[in-house]
Design goal:
Helix 1 (about 5-20) packs across helix 4 (about 45-70). This protein is an all-alpha fold. It contains ten helices and no strands.
Length: about 200
């Protein structure tokens, strides 16, 4: 069972997704989270503290999700592609509200240096995690490769949210070929060797 602080932050992410930054108020979070009025302001005395908590919660959720997604990858590059496709599809479907909340925060960060710094730190942590995974698979420039993969997935997810498709199966079918090509092209990734070894 989630603690009250986590309940509040999860509710805040839903408010961001549904009503944007302007709609993010302590009262709105109380209502969405189904908790007594005043609870959010008790845990987060200011709106800036609530926003900072949202950034922290997103990072916590993202790291947990990515850790689970890549746990079965091991040294299998094809499994990495599967994990990337699954992660992107989830961002556009089952985790859609979190993705939209992140976009809302990102837009606000353009004019808020403190928020921008917090989001950059969180993004750096995600990219570092991805770089470690790629490094273990032989990527020779893992940091830049992780940056490239993140950018590709971000672009695909943003496009899907705005233009579609919205069905998970359609998204997976559309995204697998370009993601596979991107992984194949990463410096140091020996895709053909890996597949020959797997199939032998």
């Amino acid at each position: 069972m989630a603690d009250r602080r986590t309940e509040i932050l999860d509710g805040a992410l839903h408010v961001l997704a549904e009503h944007g930054m302007r709609g993010l108020t302590h009262r709105a979070v109380d209502a969405v989270a189904g908790i007594p009025q005043g609870s959010t302001s008790y845990y987060f005395r200011s709106r800036s503290a609530l926003v900072a908590g949202c950034v922290e919660r997103l990072l916590e959720l993202d790291l947990a999700f990515e850790s689970a997604a890549v746990s079965a990858v091991g040294g299998d590059i094809r499994a990495l592609v599967d994990a990337l496709v699954d992660a992107g599809v989830a961002m556009a479907t089952t985790r859609r509200h979190r993705t939209i909340a992140r976009y809302e925060l990102s837009l606000a960060a353009v004019r808020d240096p403190q928020l921008r710094a917090a989001l950059v730190r969180g993004g750096d942590a995600i990219r570092a995690f991805g770089a470690d995974v790629l490094r273990a698979l032989g990527a020779s420039d893992a940091d830049r490769s992780a940056e490239a993969i993140v950018a590709i997935i971000d672009g695909m997810v943003f496009t899907a949210l705005v233009r579609g498709p919205h069905e998970p199966a359609a998204l997976a079918a559309a995204w697998r070929p370009p993601l596979e090509r991107a992984v194949r092209a990463l410096p140091g990734i020996a895709w053909d060797v890996a597949q020959d070894t797997k199939e032998s």
